[in-house]
Amino acid sequence: MGGAERSARRKRQAQNAGRGTPAVAKHKPADRKPIIIGAVVVVLLLAAVLGGVIYSNNTKNATEGQNIATSELDDAATGAAGDKVTYPVEREGAVVVVGKSTAKVTLDAYEDFLCPVCGAFEENFGDDIQRHLEAGDLRVRYHMLPLLNERSDPPGYSLDSADAALCAADAGKFTEFHQALYDAQPEEGARGWDKSQLAKLGKDLGIGSTSFKSCVESGRYDTEIQSHFDEVRTAEYLQQDINGQKGFGTPTVANGHEVVDTSNPKWLDALLDNAS
Amino acid sequence: MLDVIGTLARVGLAAVWLISGFIKVSDLNQTYIAVQAYDLLPSDVVNVVAGALPFLELALGVLLLAGLGTRLTAAVSALVLLAFIGAVAQSWARGLTIDCGCFGGGGQVAAGDTRYPQELARDLGFLVLAAWLLARPRTLLALDGWLTTRDMPAEPVDTQGRT
Predict the structure, then answer these.
(1) Does position A138 have pLDDT exceeding 80, yes or no?
(2) What is the average pLDDT across A180-207?
(3) Which domain holds residue A207?
(4) A43 contacts chain B (CB < 8 A)
(5) Distances (CA, A) of A18 to A12, A13, A22, A130, B153
(6) Do A115 and A189 have their domain in common?
(7) Which of A102, A116, A273, B144 allows an S-S link to B160, with CB 3.0 to 4.6 Å?
């Protein structure tokens, strides 16, 4: 303490004396300043790193602590004021088959709940598809695939949501569940919905059974989905031109072994007209 | 004259960090995908790196622009650039088909769309700027110079950037 006080006094004296005692003024502050500057720089960089991680996680975890909204099925979808699905819904392995077996066209729809283009596809054509499912002239086999499973943070949303949709199909609520997940689609690179949120959505949609909850939380169909995905992604007839390269992508719609070009807004009407 | 070159290097590198940091901060989700595409880190670590990196870049940019702690900031910049170069090089060597995500974007691309040589050349160019400032941190219009010479206008010894 005494030494520190002395040196502080000497420093003051040196400053007061100005040029008169250059030896003291030259060494003490000149040697210390770069260290102080260095410390300030290190503190600023660390603050940027820590603050950055905290800020990033806050903005990316928007889905945390929320409930997935239950979407009302549109009138166009149900054809009536009520929102009951009137067509059969069946799960066949990792595929959900919706619509009447007497339909004249059966399509295969390959989707991923995280894929933004799939979200746009559902937004654009979901109502049309529902209308035709209700009318009975269309049947759709939905393949929910974990193509973008690594693209949520933490990873796993694609597979969890695909499994939950199959569980919801077992409980007879596939259409509502599917619709709600696309309406509340999380962003790629951000937090998805976790298993308990997916289970809660089922409950909010009126699925009371405990087996649904355990189906979602245990990932009952995960293995089945994964092996189905491995078959699908290597199927020759599903390969498409993606940025100049052959590959499998979502969404893909196929009629039999033929990929349907959905870039034409009237593709579904055209397909149904040709079939009749 | 050497001071002028150093100043250009400092402002240039500052601009690089500010621009790349700003683009990354604007789309943090994309930054996560870009970091993950390198396939180097477990997902927990990807989360931290992708969260911190944009802000570290911005901080380096601000410090370089102000000319505060130039040598130390240049050293950290060089380390970050070396990490980038290593990450891009390993992607190339392993045959991954990704975009570096250096200035936004990032993630998987088609096999014909990779630009590893250009990306590496660009990062090496930035590394030269950092190396110059590391070796010779004295520049014009820098806080370093202002802070270390203000009390001693007659002191000819160069103390700028010594950290």
Answers:
(1) yes
(2) 95
(3) 75-275
(4) no
(5) 10, 8, 8, 88, 12
(6) yes
(7) B144
